[in-house]
Amino acid sequence: MKKYSITKAAFRMYRSYNPKYFPLKFLQTFFDNISPYFNLWLSAEIVTELYEGRGRRELYTLVAITLFGNLFISVMGAVLKRTVAVQYEILENNQAAAFHHKTLSLDYDKIENPEIRQHRRKIKENSWINGYGVMCMQNQIQLLMKCIVNFVFVMALFIEMLSLIVTVGFQWIGLVLSVTMIACIVMVVLTQSWSIRKITLWNKNIGDLMLDENRIGKGYHPDGMDNRIYCQQGIISKLFEKICRQHLQVFSEAGNKDFAYALPMSLFYGLLEISSFLIVCFYCTLGAFPVGSVIKYVGFLRSIIQSVTDFFSAINTLKDNEIFLKVYLDYFDIRNDMYQGSLAVEKRSDKKFHIEFKNVSFRYAGAQNDALKNINISLQVGERLAVVGRNGSGKTTFIKLLCRLYDPTEGEITMNDFNIRKYDYRQYLDIFSVVFQDFNLLAVPLGCNVASASTWDLEKAEKLLEEVGFGERYDQMPKGLDTPLYKNFDQDGVNISGGEAQKIALARALYRDAAFIILDEPTAALDPIAEAEIYSKFDEIVGDKTTVYISHRLSSCRFCDKIVVFDNGRIVQMGTHEELLADETGKYHELWYAQAQYYTRTTV
């Protein structure tokens, strides 16, 4: 791979988020850095005027140019600073939007893949904690802009000085000083390049240590309730003392290394300043340029050294940063491999979609065992299906496959005798309404949450909210469906309880009017009686739609037409409540009486 190709690719992507930013930033950098050179040049002219005793008119003219020139530079700098700040916000917002869009566009199996989740976390950690990645690239490019602007001004002064020296001829003392100065410049650049690379690698180690400290610290909360109950304060104090000792040791070693790297560079830099000052003074005494130019040329020689060292610093840092930029770019290169299908889903007013699992097995990425094994089941039109079992038995995985958030590892799922992979992916998803256990409502108006759109049918939304039991709370909202939920974006937003959120989620599932409605334990936080009441009431509302109820509480779903019992990723029983309960050797019987003992009062 060509040198800096990763940086170039990342910069092209980053610049595309707001093409206006970097040109305006370069213009701002120009005005930020012109002031020292402008003042340096005019100060030299004023000192020369004073030394040579010229007229006041020329002196006042130079002072006026200095004052008004600085005023103009300051005004332009302020205007550009404000403009650049706005463009930077646009740039960062667009970058964040692009990152989130990439995440949202990934196949669901990629979203849940542990390696990809770790990849995404690493990008954030590199940027927020270590300061590497895109943030580092942006800072170093801006430093390069500053160096380029300084080089332009410095070369103008250097050419002017060289042309004046030529008029008196090169003297042997001047040649010696010049050779010394050039040698010092070379040594400063080499030392700077070497030390920056070492310090950058050392700073990465420090950043990794801080990252480890941050991760460790997250696991121990001094104000946690568990710590008080189990008297863990002593253990936590010892852990933090250990972290502090490691922290102090690393930073102490870092300080020693910084000093060892900085010492030779400081020595060469000092020799460079002395030799450059002597050169200017020597040729000034020969009459090559007026006395005021001592200020100008000594100042410019200092600037060129700083610019050179900054330039090599930026180049080295950009090179070291490429490993972090590659992590960023690789995330955007992740490709979706789920087949999207092309067969149109038939629009049926009778909602007659027959779905069947045929020897379906599934294993999550990186897992050693199958989450589901040899699943065979069919969903009949208008059927009430209950999926029950212990936590981790495969119930939610079954729903993910049914909704085609994942494709089976083995076997196939068919709808109306066609493999569901052949159907248009978006159209297939549209036949499902699901309320997951970890459902989310957005901080947008209530109507948007119910309709999952920016517009909604007022009468339909209000009717459904009333049917799911949200009517009393809805009557207290003066803005009705325009009431914002939560206060993330609106101070007039309304905070709702967990139970109220569940009712809104149920109304959202009904509003879609999908052929299949699935409740994946959205009421798990409620007590069994409350959950059974909600499921029973919801069953009255759904009408002739095919409905799947998932719960690890068997009493909530006893009204269903068919109950499927999952255990260790397999379907171990299937039938009605009465049929399954009659089988005393079955898993359903075991689970039913294991749960029933907690709700049955024994009288003596």
Beta-strand content: 5-15%
Please report the total strand number as a whole number.
10
Q: Main sheet, how many strands, which sense, barrel?
A: 6 strands, mixed
Radius of gyration: 36 Å
Low-confidence stretches: none
Element order, helices and strands? HHHHHHHHHHHEEEHEEHEHHHHEHEEEHH
- Per the principal axes of the C-alpha atoms, what is the gross shape? elongated
Integer average pLDDT = 81
Strand order of the largest sheet: 6-7-8-3-9-10
Q: What structural class should be given to the helix and strand makeup?
A: alpha/beta
Helix coverage percent: 55-70%
- How far apart are the termini? 82 Å
Number of helices: 20
Plain-language structure description:
The protein is an alpha/beta fold and 604 residues long. The protein has a domain at 441-513. The chain is built from 20 helices and ten strands. A six-stranded mixed sheet has the order 6-7-8-3-9-10, sandwiched between helices. Helix 18 links the parallel strand 7 and strand 8. Helix 2 packs parallel to helix 6 and helix 6 (134-168) packs antiparallel against helix 10. The protein is elongated, with a radius of gyration of 36 Å. The mean pLDDT is 81.
